[in-house]
Structure formats: C-alpha cells, structure tokens
Design brief:
By secondary structure, the chain is α+β, with helices and mostly antiparallel strands. The chain contains 13 helices and 26 strands. The protein is 29% helix and 23% strand.
C-alpha cells in the first residue's frame, strides 16, 4: 500500500487498558512533496520499497513534472561510519580551490582559516619572553643548545624558513614560540617545536584554523595488509611535512623569533616558515591531501598499484605493504619513487625489505639508514621498526622490545609500564590485560598520580612486570599463513569471543585454503577490554564480547582488501546464542 493510516495515541495489546480517545489521520502527499488533506490530484505518485541484501531503496517518480529516479533512502556498508562534518567539508573545499604548484614543483596551499574568525592580536611580546627563557636554558644545557642550533641550521639551509618581511601598519600576524624536545629512543636527536597551540589573549593559531578530516589510513589496517604476501617492503617520504609550502599571504601567521644568522651572540630577529609547521592542527590533513592527489594524478602514467600503495598503504609518511614477488617489489618501489618525484617533488627513501634480492637491487642511498653500509651476505640485519612494531628482516617475524628501566611504584609509573608495550594487533593481549587488571586494583585508593601505592599489590605487580622480559623471546611470523592470501582458493574468517567477571575478549583467525585442498590457520587480530567493576552480569558481559567479535570482524573485512568467502562466529554462551537466534 503506497500510503496508510497514522494512529496517534497510547496503544495496548488485546484491548487491555484501551485509551478513551484515538486520533487518526489519513495523509496524502502531492507530487511536490507537500502534505494535503484534499483529494489526490491527477498526478501519479509512487513510493516503492525494495528489500534486497539489507538495502532499502525508496524511489519517487513524477510522470508529468519530470522523472526523479534517485533513491531517497539507501542502506550501505558506510551507514555506521562517521561522515564528514560541516567543517571537514569546508576544509576540503578550501584545499580543492586553492591547492596549486609553486615554481619549484611543490604543492602550495593556504592555511585553512575558519569563516568567520577572530582577528589575531600581535603576540610578539609573549613569544619574545619565551625566547629569552629558552636562551637561559641554553646556559644550563650546552648540549641541548648545540642540538637545537644544528636543527635550525638545517632548517635554514633547506629553505624551510626565511627572514620575515617587515610588517605593514596594522597588518595581521602571529608568532610561534620555539622549543626543543627529544625522542625517548633518539637521545642525541632533537626536534624543534613551533608551538601553534600557544595562547595569547585567549586565542591561538590552532583555534582559528579548521582541523580538517582524518585522512590518515588506519594504522592497524595498514599492518594487517602488510602481512598478506611473501615480500614485505617499507619506505618513508623525506621530511614530508616540509615538502608542502604555504601561500605567501599566510606566512605572516607562521612568524617566529630566532638569532640572526643562527648565531647565539646575535640579536633575536623575525623569521617565518615557508612550509607548513608540523604542530599546526590541520597539518596532517594538509599533507595527506596533496600526497593522495599526487598519487591520483600519477595513476595514468605509473599504474593503479602505485596509487593504491600511496592512498591505501601509507600511514602519514611511512609506506608499508607486501607483494608476491621480488621483481614486483622492486618495480613497485621504483615506480612509486619516480611518481612522487615527478608529480609532487617528494623524495621516497629509507627502503627496507625481508628479501635480500630486493635490498641488493635497490639504490644503496635509498636504503634505510642502518642498512646502507651492510654486507647482506655476512652481516646480521638490524631490527626495523614498522609503525611501532619491531620487524626482524632475517626471520621475517615480529618481536617485542621491553624497556628495562624500573619506574616508580606509582599510578603514573605503573601506567607508563603498561603503555610501553605497543601491540596494535593484539598479539600479546592476554599479557597486557593482566597488567590492566592489576592497575585497576591499584587505583581503587584515592591517591595522586605520583604518590606511592599500597604495598599490598607490589609483589603481584613486580611479578607481572618481571615476566615482560619473556616477550623478547616471542617471535610472530609476519605472514598470516605459508599460503599467500592472493593465491588462496578460499578464505574463511573465524572469530571467537568470551567473557569473565574481569574482562571480555575476542580474537579472529584466517583459514586459508590452497588449490590442492590443504589449509593453514593464522592469527589476524585480538582485542580485550576490562569488565566494569560493578553493575554487570555475566550474560551481559557475554553479549558485550559478542558485540566486540562483530566489531573486529567488520574491521577485518573492511581493511583486509580481500574477499572473505565464509565468516563464522563462536561463543560458548547459550544466552548469546539464544539472543542471536531469537
């Protein structure tokens, strides 16, 4: 029936406690979508509901006033995923309208300011005060001074920054404070931070810019695809964030104070960035947008696999993928390097692979830093870090490195120890969940983050912390199974879920079949969560575990980039099975 009755009022079953009054209206819709209580006009109006494979299409057709054949409602696989916000769409419109090449072949884009926005005040006095404080810090730490000045010298030599032009009368500008930070794993290498979040008069540069959509590929998804094929390859774009220039009219918003000629004995002078600062909140989206545009432009010349590598298997500036043969890996890396250089003036380098043939046939200058001068026939290969995981090139396995430094027995120290184990794929989730359970026990007391914790749980904590050293002996093969995913005749996904009063968990395995009928099983993804302290029942937790199983299975289907022929779920809870089949 195209249209029906609408009943308004409290309803009940079997006439029990029936309401005294029920209002009913018959709604008629005119062809232009207008509701009417009058008799239908001669125009023909049809509403069609077509159910097929979980989709509902509602078509509207006008016979005399033109055909409207597009669906009003349509269910898709993207319905449960967040869409672009209004600000994200504004950001994309700005980038699409203003992205262009400069005279050197680099992509040039504006700063994506909000509209409308507050006029920025001149914050030079605040930044000057912070620059003076940094100068005093140099007196106390000459080593840090040497590292920072070396960083800034390279910044000027590469023309990432330049002397700022004089400001015109009442010209809007913004200054960025500068300070240096060290990476925990690189104590001899400093990075200067241009603090875009620094606030002055209740406003900061980041607060008046659009952040942009999250265009970065999911890290876990990239790692999952990295495990599919025989030959694993890694690469990196050299100084990617400094490869995209800022429109000249917006460089006044990226001013900073530094010593003239990079000499500490000289006066502080106005400089400005020519490229987008890493610390700007929209910088990840600003960098990813032209990178993917470069790959799209290069597709016709260099092939679709190059575009897929850049758009699908890059995490920020790191490339991580797997292919079926040595020749394919060498060819893909060389074509991708040439494509990025030709169409984006980007330099792809730091190549590494588990294949000796791939490593030897690539330009030694393009290899990862710790592979450049190695003899691949005799020298032991160093561990490579692939998006935070340690990758042993010789054995083609993942392993773990555990920090040996003993942290204080405080909330902060315990949390820091647990979070030091980077395990995005859930290889050691049964171990890390034990640490989280202990941490929750320790946090029952109301103490500050740096106050000593009760001694009641110290022995249990020390026993778990000491056991972490055994993780360094764990080696997990990179490939899911000995059978390459793309050569499989059939692939099944099996997901198990369970729960207890302490935690819920789900884990997925791939079962890969060869053409000869043989099959192999491989771990894909595992995930654990702490159960609530109170207000739960075991059946409820079992249902939560089942939901978690669905979530990780959907994630695998979306990110594996391979059709899965059969999907099966397993639970030992009759209540869960009853709810599912009800």
């Amino acid at each position: 029936m195209p249209l029906g009755w609408v009943v308004i009022g409290n309803m009940c079953l079997d006439g029990i406690h029936a309401p005294n009054d029920v209002n009913a209206y018959l709604t008629r819709i005119a062809p232009d979508g207008r509701a009417s209580i009058r008799q239908p006009c001669p125009y023909n109006y049809d509403v069609n509901e077509c159910f097929s494979c979980g989709s509902i299409n509602l078509g509207v057709h006008h016979n005399k006033n033109g055909n409207i054949t597009s669906a009003i409602f349509e269910r898709t696989t993207q319905d449960d995923k967040p869409g672009l916000s209004i600000e994200d769409r504004q950001f994309l419109e700005i980038m699409q309208a203003n992205l262009q090449k400069d005279s050197n072949g680099n992509w040039c884009s504006p700063l994506p300011f909000r509209t409308p926005r507050r006029r920025l005040p001149n914050n030079r006095a605040m930044v000057l005060h912070r620059a003076k404080s940094l100068e005093k810090c140099f007196d106390r730490d000459p080593v840090k001074q040497e590292h920072i000045f070396a960083f800034m010298q390279k910044l000027f030599e590469c023309k990432h920054a330049e002397l700022a032009p004089p400001l015109k009368s009442n010209e809007e500008c913004w200054y960025l404070p500068v300070f240096g930070i060290y990476h925990p794993k690189k104590p001899d290498k400093v990075r200067c931070v241009f603090d875009s979040s620094a606030s002055y008069d209740n406003v900061s540069l980041n607060s008046v810019m659009l952040r942009g959509p999250d265009m970065t590929n999911n890290l876990v998804g990239v790692l999952m695809r990295f495990r599919k094929e025989l030959i694993g390859i890694m690469a990196d774009i050299q100084q990617m964030f400094y490869s995209f220039t800022v429109n000249e009219e917006h460089r006044n918003f990226l001013r900073f104070l530094w010593f003239r000629d990079n000499d500490i004995d000289n006066e502080l002078t106005d400089y400005c960035m020519r490229e987008h600062a890493f610390e700007n909140s929209p910088s990840p989206a600003i960098a990813t947008f032209p990178l993917q545009k470069t790959a799209e432009i290069a597709e016709q010349t260099f092939g679709k696999d190059v575009t897929d590598l850049v758009c699908r298997n890059f995490y920020v500036d790191d490339a991580l993928t797997s292919v079926g043969s040595n020749s394919e890996a060498i060819d893909l890396l060389n074509r991708t390097k040439e494509a990025l250089k030709t169409f984006g003036n980007l330099h792809l380098h730091k190549f590494s692979s588990n294949s000796k043939e791939v490593r030897t046939k690539l330009d030694p200058q393009d290899l990862a830093e710790n592979l450049e001068n190695l003899n691949f026939e005799t020298d032991n290969l160093p561990l490579q870090r692939s998006l935070g995981l340690y990758w042993n090139l010789e054995s083609d396995t993942f392993t773990f490195k555990v920090l040996n430094d003993e942290r204080a027995f405080t909330r902060r120290g315990v949390l820091s120890t647990i979070n030091s184990i980077f395990d995005p794929l859930g290889f050691v989730s049964p171990v890390t969940i034990q640490g989280k359970i202990i941490l929750r026990k320790l946090m029952i007391e109301s103490v500050n983050w740096d106050d000593p914790l009760t001694e009641d749980f110290r022995q249990e904590w020390e026993q778990w912390r000491t056991s972490l050293t055994s993780l360094e002996n764990v080696m997990i093969r990179r490939m899911y199974t000995p059978i390459y995913v793309r050569d499989a005749s059939k692939i099944e996904l099996h997901t198990f879920c369970d729960a207890s009063e302490k935690a819920i968990a789900a884990v997925s395995y791939l079962k890969v079949f060869h053409h000869d009928g043989s099959s192999h099983l491989g771990f894909v993804l595992g995930k654990t969560k702490l159960a609530p302290i109170s207000g739960y029942t075991i059946p409820r937790l079992m249902l939560c575990a089942a939901v978690l199983a669905i979530e990780i299975s959907d994630f695998i289907i979306d990110n594996l980039d391979r059709k899965i022929d059969t999907i099966q779920f397993y639970s030992d809870s009759r209540i869960v099975l009853g709810y599912v089949t009800n």
